[in-house]
């Protein structure tokens, strides 16, 4: 039987339409060859378009009214009732890891049931933090792993400093593209790769305004995307942030339990039990 594996790459604050006009060959190629869907957060029209609710939504498969993360201070969150997909996979005996350059990812969003959680938020700058995260991810991706989450933070930080319309933001998107290329290359270099079926998902938690910043309800701030390839994802699938966790878990053979009360659904073609 083909071993099924999954990789989630998160690029914080990436306004995807910027990808087309910069030197981002990997994301450009994937946008045209993979299943790509844009959507706008949130259905309630009021949740702040910030990282806490964004990543919590992505990894739990539920909207903020369930996981309870309304902003970046995580007060009264219900992540223990609506755990992240790495935790759910770990409970099924799968091998997982997360590397991230934003501290709440490894301290709060991904539970401590996931034993391999590496934080790089103490790096000297955000470019270095992402580079260090990828440096840590690549050997882990060469080894025994079923599900990985690689988080990149530089694009968002540059967006805050200079705005999404800036040359600096464009350069940060290019550097994220190079990091994505390295992560994917690490997967494809696995000796067992030809006998494995990898589902790769690339996404973001919110967009950015032209002058920089997010949290509000403008189209640019609400802009998100999900890029999916490597497994039999329905090409017409309107995949949204909440669909990522159930899709990845289904691919890994983890049955979705109704009692989890997920808001998303698997967009894999056919039933995979
Ligand atoms: Zn963010």
From TrEMBL:
<protein>
    <submittedName>
        <fullName>Alkaline phosphatase family protein</fullName>
    </submittedName>
</protein>
<dbReference type="InterPro" id="IPR002591">
    <property type="entry name" value="Phosphodiest/P_Trfase"/>
</dbReference>
<dbReference type="InterPro" id="IPR017850">
    <property type="entry name" value="Alkaline_phosphatase_core_sf"/>
</dbReference>
<dbReference type="Pfam" id="PF01663">
    <property type="entry name" value="Phosphodiest"/>
</dbReference>
